[in-house]
């Protein structure tokens, strides 16, 4: 009844791990996947490592081929050009209106000061005349 096999079931192994997962291949010494699947997994890992090496070499190595030099020259020329500014209708209106309104404001301020100067002189002149009239009438 008891057949002899390479697999031994030991329930004590499960209690001793205290919740740690043990892979079946380590527990029983048997491969879970067949040889083709393992080969595909290994090839995928190698492919991924090769892609990472390629990316690292492209990013960190200096390019010596002609296309890379051409690309770097184009990049340097792009950043040497000065941006061209164009005026739009809205910017023209605000620039011209802003400058002319400032001139109008200055003109109005100067005009106001001149008027106030003349008014002040007129008041001083009247004040000088009024006391003389009062003094003349009172004599």
Structure commentary:
The protein is an all-alpha fold and 139 residues long. It has 2 domains: 10-79, no CATH class; 98-139. The protein has helices at residues 12-16, 24-28, 35-60, 66-80, 89-138. The radius of gyration is 49 Å and the shape is elongated. The mean pLDDT is 76.
Provide keyphrases for this structure.
139 residues
What structural category characterises the helix and strand content? mainly alpha
Q: Give the terminus-to-terminus CA distance.
A: 157 Å
Estimate the global geometry from the Cα principal axes: elongated
What is the number of independent domains? 2
Which runs of at least 5 residues are low in confidence (pLDDT < 50)?
Answer: none
Helix percent band: over 70%
- Estimate the mean pLDDT confidence: 76
**Helix segment count?**
5
For the CA atoms, what is the radius of gyration?
49 Å
The largest β sheet comes out as:
none
> How do the helices and strands follow one another from N- to C-terminus?
HHHHH
Strand content: under 5%
Question: How many strands in all?
Answer: 0
Note the topology.
Layout: H1 12-16, H2 24-28, H3 35-60, H4 66-80, H5 89-138
In short:
By secondary structure, the chain is mostly helical. Helix content is 73%, strand content 0%.
């Amino acid at each position: 009844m008891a057949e002899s096999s390479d697999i031994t079931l030991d329930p004590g192994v499960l209690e001793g791990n205290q919740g740690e997962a043990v892979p079946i291949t380590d527990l029983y010494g048997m491969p879970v996947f067949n040889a083709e699947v393992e080969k595909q997994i290994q090839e995928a890992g190698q492919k991924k490592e090769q892609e990472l090496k390629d990316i690292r070499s492209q990013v960190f190595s200096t390019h010596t081929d002609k296309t890379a030099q051409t690309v770097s020259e184009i990049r340097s020329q792009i950043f040497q050009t000065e941006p061209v500014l164009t005026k739009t209708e809205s910017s023209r209106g605000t620039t011209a209106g802003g400058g002319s309104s400032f001139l109008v404001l200055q003109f109005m301020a100067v005009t106001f000061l001149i008027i106030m100067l003349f008014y002040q002189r007129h008041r001083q002149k009247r004040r000088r005349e009024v006391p003389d009239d009062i003094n003349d009438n009172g004599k």
